[in-house]
Structure formats: C-alpha cells, structure tokens
Amino acid sequence: MERSRYQLERLSLLIRTSIFLYEKGELLEYRPNAAFNPIRDNRMFREKLVALAGEQEEPLLYQDGWQVIYTCIRKGNSFLLSGPVSLENIGNVELRRYYREYGMKSGSGRQIPAAPLSLIITVAQMMTREFTGREYTDQELLRANRIAGSSEEKIGQEQILFEIREDEEERYHHTYQEERKLLECIREGKPDEAVRHSEEMDIGMGRLGRKDMRHWANAAVVAVTLCVRAAIEGGVSPAEAYQVSDFYIQKTEECRKVADLLELRNAAVRDLTNRVRKKIEGRKHSSYVDKCMDYVSRHYKEKIYLKDMAENLGLSSTYLSRLFARETGMQLQEYINRFRVERAANLLTYSEESISYIAEYVNFPSQSYLGKMFRKYKHMTPKEYRDRYKPSEFTEETGEKRQG
Known about the structure:
globular; 3 domains; five-stranded antiparallel sheet; Beta-Lactamase; 19 helices; Arc Repressor Mutant, subunit A; 60% helix; alpha+beta; single chain
C-alpha cells in the first residue's frame, strides 16, 4: 500500500493535479493541490464520474465542454479519480466561468494545469496499472471514451483524394534544396540570409490549410520546427531551442492577420539563427561543459548526481568537476543552484503556483532552502521577488494575497 501511495503521489506531481481514492463514501486525496477541485468539492459531479465509470470496463476519460479531462478508474466498489487537466490553457475570463459552472464563486479559482492528451493518457494507464493491475493501449482508451479521431481507413481515403486534387492543380512545392539553403544559413549563424531564404520559399509553397490564416499559421509552425533542428545542429542546446520553439508556436495563436504571422515567423528564424551566431562567436566552453549544461537544463527537476553526468559523458567525476570549474569559474553544484533559482523565478513571475510547490518542482529540498538560495542569488525572498516582478495581467482580479 505504501508503494502505491508513493507512486500515486509522484503521478499527481507529474500531472500537477490531485488524485483521489473514493470508496465507501470516503474520499482520500494523494498530495493535495488546488484549494478547489470539482472532484473533491462537488459531490454531484463526483457521483456522475463514478456512475459513468461503472458503465464501462475501461478507465473513464471524461472530457467536459471546456476541453478539461477527468479520469476515473473502477476496481470493484472502489474508484481512483484524478483531474482537472486541460488540453489547452484557459484564459482568466473563461476560467471564472468554468469554476462557476462547477459551483465555485467567480474569481476564486487558480489556473487549471494543461497537458497534451498523450501525457494524460499515459498517466491514466499508469494509474490503472497501479490500481487494478490491468493494462490498456492508447487506442483502447480513446475508443472506449469516444475521443478517437478518424479511422485509418478514412484517413487513407482522404489522403488519396488530396493527392488527386493536388496533382490536378499542379501545385509547386519548394524543393528540398531550397530547404537545405535555409537550414545551412541557420547552422552557420547567418540571420539575414536565413530570413531571406525563408521569405523566398513562401512564393511556391503548397497550401497547408484551406483558409489563408490557417495556411500561414501552419507554415509558421513548420518553419519554426525545421529551424529548431538546424539551431541544435549549430550548437544551441536542445532545451533552449525547444523553449524558443514553444514560445513562437504559441504566439501564432495570438496573431489575427497574415502579416502578423509572417512577421512572427521571421522573428523566430532570426532569433534562432542569432543564438547560433552567438554560440559560434562566443564559444569558450568545451563540448563537455556545453553538454553538462544541457544535462542540467533537462534534469534540473530531478536529483542530479555528478557520477551520472560524468558517466553520461564518458569522463571521470573528478575530471569533469575540475573541467567545469576551470571553464565556468564556478562549481557544478553552484551552477545547478543558479539554474534552479532562475527557473523558480520564472514560475514566481508567470504562474500562480505556491512557493512551496515551486520549491518542490525545481527540486530544492524545502521551501526554506529555496528562500536561502534566492537571497543568495537574487538578494531578496521569493515572495518579494513575486510581488516586485509579477506582471499585472497575471495577478488575480480579487486582489487577494498569494499564499506561500
């Protein structure tokens, strides 16, 4: 039982929402999260999930009208529930309406954690395996809960029709060689040439959507995705490159004009290429130290051991420690602490998560240790930092004090 509790608590941390055990009218919560949760605080909704889960053999993935998903798994007369997790970020206005629908006063709810459907399904599979011992494939869960998209046969038919239509219209698609020119400019850190090649490719591009806005939004996403790979090959760390990619791809959703999409696409190409150029011009670290920094960026939420990092690079722990200190002027542990503080600062600025949650998220041993590191590197407490740098659009309209 202790092992199951530990596993469910870790899954709750991964998905950033609560997991509950409901049996004999009693509700046990693994690692409490938000102050309000429809499963915990809306009895009628909880009973609805339980009733729906009882009607099918497979775990229930309940998707409401807000693109928010709840999971309910049945084992005899016991139920394991989790949620809410949203498939997309919900704006503040829509968030208040969401909480009102579930019986909460307007303006009192915090942001609902968002996650891709693949992660939600994976967590549901792991919960099911831990709770019942049974295993289900992605397709089994999607079909049972009517979330599955077009069948393979239908997709195949649509693809044939699409190819026929494209042949009839004799659309010209930019060649592989033209793509290579763009990617080569990015790998070599030439931003002006990269933007020029990107714009030239617009002329002969095939349609990526029936409507202009959809076509150019898709084109922007494709361009950013291609450029990210080239930037990584040019020396930008994967963590940094994908963070830049996520930013620009999400910004496409805010564009209302084609001109805005093209400008955003060019900004992304220029940004990624400039990062490669700076890497080329300012290279002062060996590839080992660069890989070490990239390792930290990918694993800062976990316990990082020098031995594991050294083995990953094929070096001895002693040599890696000396090399890192010589090239960066700081010990590896100090670099890790600084990195975690910067990530914590971002969360303090752009999220409503509690300080204790943020400390756990960046893998500091306690909230007090986060405070100690913050005072060392930021010369203020986490609360002071949040109060000073929190943008006004991220503050709650109620004006209530955030709790640490």
